[in-house]
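Dissemination and training. As part of the outreach component of the grant, students in the summer workshop were shown how a complex can be specified as a set of sequence lines and then modelled as a single object. The example used during the hands-on session is reproduced here so that future cohorts can follow it. Participants entered these lines:
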Amino acid sequence: MKSKLLSAPYIVWMILFTLVPLGVVFYYAFADVNTGQFTMANLANMGTYTPIFLRSIWLSLAASAICLVIGYPVAYYISQTKPTTQRFLSMLIMLPMCMSFLLRTLAWVALLEDTGIINRLLSNFGIGPLPLIRNNGAVILGMVYNYLPYMILPLYSVMVKIDRRLIEAAQDLGCNSRQVFGKVIFPLSVPGIISGISMVFVPAVSTFYISQKLGSTGTTLIGDVIESQFKGAYNPNLGAAMSLVLMVLIFICVGIMNHFGEDNSEEGMVTI
Amino acid sequence: MSKELIRLTDLTMSFDGEQILDKINLYINDQEFLTLLGPSGCGKTTTLRIIGGFLTPDSGDVFFEGKRINDVPAHKRKINTVFQRYALFPHLDVYDNVAFGLRISKLPEDEIDRRVTEMLEIVSLRGFEDRSVTSLSGGQQQRVAIARALVNRPKVLLLDEPLGALDLRLRKDMQNELKRIQQTMGITFIYVTHDQEEALTMSDTIVVMDKGHIQQIGTPEDIYNEPKNAFVADFIGESNILDGIMLQDCLVEFFGRRFPCVDKGFAANEPVDVVIRPEDIDIVPADAGHLCGTVTSITFKGVHYDIIVDFKGFKWLIQSTDYQPVGAYIGIRLNPEDIHVMKKSEYSDMFGDYSSYSAEYDEIAEGGEDEE
Amino acid sequence: MRKVNKIFTILVFIFLYIPMILLAIASFNSGTDIAVFKEFTLRQYGNLFRDSTLLALLRNSLIIAVLSSLIATVMGTAAAVGIHSMGGRMRSVIMGVTNIPMTNPEIVTGVSMALLFAFIGHLLKINAILGFGTLLIAHITFNLPYVILNVMPKLKQMDPDLKEAALDLGCTPVQAFFKVVIHEVMPGILSGALMAFTMSLDDFIISYFVTGSGFITLPVEIYNYTKKPIQPKIYALFTLMFAVILTLMVLMNLLQLRDSKKKATTQRKDFMKR
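and obtained this result:
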């Protein structure tokens, strides 16, 4: 009874600074920017931002898919190495996560610019300058670069926990190495895929720095619009409405993914 | 000796709507070695944890030296526990583990040192003071756990299946060791186990429990020789349990035949359960037997053979040092003192038939063939 | 197949590290254009250490990171112990709320807190409410889940008998926590605190929304810098940070390695004794 009380400060804190702020977002989303009266105008306004929402979703889905395709073999390779190598390699994966993502993104600007390193190298061969920056591709590249570790780590940690004996059992029952992968390792790594995708998708869909630096006015994302409502054209009510829509959107996407994942893992259990 | 130390009255306890203990009444004497024996889920560990102060009963009282201690928390009871998986503190070495309780009660450091050293002597762990507890073997960890509890000189030591994790040889050694320690230190031991042999070897008193009820309380000899119902008879050792009718004092009828016995106090013609221990049965030539049957299987067990004999469709287990070939027609003799008569209970007809004994082997053999 | 995979992995690592190596090289460049390497120089590092504003910002970041991770560790550990002793339904509700800052995008967390502070400021008629206090509150809030999610599994793994053994030997519940339980969950507390510290030190998005002009952290200022033509001393700062984090990680790695080796040898000895 008494030890439950230990969590009281935390519960109070989370109510004050997690639940109440979400309530305040609701409040602002439904309030007029000038009068503070109840209004649906902010949400009704969302229609004009549909292309931006769609672009954010499509670019971040593409980035998640690319991260999965690149990250899966890497995670698999790491999980197959010796424990000491594993520890070293996963440290190398984690290290970029601790570094300022602003500066790392900036380095890509230096690489991709019209007068950047790549274009200068190419000009030596008489090619270019190629339009490597300020387009959708560059934004996706920035997302992949920034969030790839968030895909590799959950995949790796699921793969490394797969019981070696299951693989041996599959081999014993006549699976070749491709079948071992398809029938045992892949189904068991589905939870890692799900959490990897949501760990990439959520920050990617809401980013604003990457699109500012690597994109152009044509690649404005929802994060940019929200940021500008708070830092530039000050309209917190519109910003709140957008945050609300973004939150609901992510809630739905992650929900669908988890549902999809559950079905899949159950199937996986049966086929093993 | 027989001064009452602990009394439990009408202890009742349930978890999530499931009745774990139903009106447990029990008293425990000073310096007694008492064992709570029963299958898992019978309520023995719950009873122990209530005595230790880790659980509060839904209703009923716990008395210690005549005082009600329901509301006394665990750390204020003069009772210590040896936990099932030892629960040694991994961040402390052997010495500091044993000294833990004494340091909590703020004894002077020289007295702590004296008592810890003495205790390590008793459990034969001198020289292990600075070892990390995680580097010890199971048996050594066990001794540290016992030393850590006993060094506080509790009135009562609670032991929750303390030998469960040890291998057979070590378990036998530790049984003797525990009995020796209990006798030299003169402390009440309350011991929980599901191992009937362990209970018979060590205890002064055995409490057989099942489904939250006490089935029988008695000395090991009582429990073995005079089981109260079919459950106790089956749980303690192997038993053939048959339906019978008590014709009069010292005369029981089963298999259509009358046998003299030593039991009294039943109503005339009362239906009863009859227990015959497999090792009490004497095998004789068929023409000299009280009953005759055919051997259907024989298994070598080391000291003896387990022989299954079919008597008119009812299969008995007989333990004998003599080999009998399968198919042999043999007779058996039953002496009056080999026959034990029990009142009918909810457990009647649930135990004591060995018909499935041989069938089990057949199934396994068939299963093996299916794999091919 | 394995070989292909190995080459692919190496390529991915190159992809991850090239931009960072580039910045490190740029920090030794005497020219200002990152794309052209003129001459080797340590001048940028000299400039960095003479720049009192940057160092002051670093100090701000450290103050916030230390304070917020400390407070979050104490509050979060206590909370984890409390949550651990709760029943299933209550526990899952609280863990659900704990997960909100983890699953919500950072920009939403930042915006929602900024709005809360704006709302409070409006109520209390304070104009410049954003600053040290709001920044600290925000950092504690997003650090708490990391502590709890690191400590909870350790509590679950712990043999529940250990706590009972301590009580049995005369500890009060408080003594049992400080003499036994805390030693068992210490690895979780430490890794939670470490994670909270790095998250806090590196946080830009949430800080960006809840900080005022009075108290700015390094990442927020770096964002302001990158809007203008960048100063090469920022590269020097980045390279130093890279070196520090790399050293810390290698050290931790070596410590873990030694630890697991020690364990393996004691186990082997144990095995041989039997």
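Residues 358-372 of chain B have pLDDT under 50 and may be disordered. Students were then asked to discuss how this feature might be tested experimentally.
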